[in-house]
Amino acid sequence: MLTSPRQHIISSVLAIVIAIVLASLLASALGAASERILTVFFISLIAVVGMGVYSGNSGILSFGHLSFMGIGAYTASLLTLPANLKVATLPKLPDWLATTEIGLFPASVIAIMLTVFVALLIGIALGKLEGSAATISTLGLLIIIHGVLIGWRDVTRGSQTFFGIPRETTLWSAAIGCMFALIIARLYRDSVSGLRLRAGRENAIAASAVGVRIRRERLVSWVLSAALMALSGALIAHFLGAISPKKFFFTDTFLLLAMLIVGGMSTVTGAVTGAVAITVVTEVLRRFEGGFSLAGFEMPAVFGTTQIGIGAIILFAMFRKPEGLAGLKEWEERVFSRPHAVKVTASTEQPTKDTQPLIAKGMTMRFGGLTAVNDVSISLRPGEIMGLIGPNGSGKTTLMNMLSGVLEPSSGKFHRGKELLSGLVSYEIADRGIARTFQNIRLFPNLTVHQNVLVAALSTKGGVNAAARADAALERMGVIGHAHDDAGTLSYGDQRRVEIARALACLPSLLFLDEPAAGMNWEETDSLMETLRMLAKELGIGVLLVDHDLKLINQLCDRIAVLNEGHLIAEGSPSEIRNNPAVIEAYLGPNKD
Ligand SMILES: Nc1ncnc2c1ncn2[C@@H]1O[C@H](COP(=O)(O)OP(=O)(O)OP(=O)(O)O)[C@@H](O)[C@H]1O
Asked: Which residues line ligand 1 (CB under 6 A)?
């Protein structure tokens, strides 16, 4: 399933095919030099989009992808190298490999399969790392695989050139490979997995809280990107006819990353833009590297002109367009307007069937020497609105974080019916019907409002009826008119509503709201109160509401629990809580009137 309009995908695919065919025909007409430049460009572009599939969608920069290109290149070359040459130059190869001599296509397929297998093993290990730790470990990967290519002399000829590879890569085979890679990358970006990964890139905690298994999605994109790198490696080896480990090390990593960063990591349009920009700069500057004469002046040769030029274009892009020359949207997302066809059906927004209360006992959270929540026991029934109040720092958010799986409690358990929920992580809890919003809004700001909500619907309850669920939630919260605006561009109040809509798209039976009215004016707060009442009454959703607005809490809540310094000091109806001496003391202090 694809998460963007069909019109976008069709126009994107058509543009890819037409541009590649036209460029190839033009290069063929211009002669061998142009053909050669375009062939290398196509092969580089496969690698750039390959890197983009992982780095662009996950937000984790990888320095290690050239390793996969190297594995692909050497594997395919070992399979296509003439048997007599293998016997002469690699005498210690096992017999079965020495005598194998197949064409580029089957060799590429095998090379891709082997690379995918290696990437899977590495990806499972790397998946445990986040942010810069993940990036640095990809650097380790590059160095290790480079070391293996050099050290495994019997198979790779070590640091010497691996020569005699049949030059089977033509302009048209590179063009077809490039077309394939661009289309795969484009489809992946808008697939369910791609959307989930982009949500995780924008905000990992929020993505997990709406059911996204970020590690799994990262692994999918890692493996897919490795496959594209292997294809690029196989093609370049069979274009050059000779390779060595240094071809798959720092220099080309820098060049390909420069293309990706300059153009924009998060789109296929960006990868193409960056590859074009860097290729043009490289080709132009290379001609001046050896010196030139201009209007009678002899300019001297300047060593490194090309590298200086690439460095300058990276600096320019970072200063002027840090998200890349092509920005954060695909070209067709900018060009075509998107009237939103609402797909609400009768089967969406059914009243919840969960009638069991959530029961939490002895919930405790220690941060080092601080006990933020101390032995708190509460319960929440479907259909009721329960307020959770207390002075600043009394542990309200921490309690909510534990009950939604964002934090693992130091001790204490919570369950619903017979199902023990403590010990589950947040995407598992979201899938069991407990959804939440955050005190500091955690939307996916560079995704549209519709995508923000759709990703939640797709990632919970098996993704059944996801589009209709997303629309119903947007409509319920009054933000369907913003469906195709980027969530980060909305007013504060609208962002809060989108966050609630995103939680509703999970079809929760319990909804945790952390200061949902913060930043709203009284009119917006009134309308929010009305909506929450309807959610509880019509859909039977239980609401746990943290807020400092005691008027809102008193008017809305059936029951109120009060925390002070991590302890539950009172629980009861609004009137009981208003007259409770412990609560008055916690809020006003012991010596106040
Ligand atoms: N990740 C953390 N690491 C260390 N201390 C934390 C962490 N999260 C919260 N705390 C501390 O735990 C205590 C309770 O914080 P918490 O945010 O739960 O309170 P709160 O009642 O929600 O406050 P507020 O009303 O200001 O949002 C505070 O002293 C806070 O500094």
From this structure: 367, 370, 372, 390, 392-398, 439
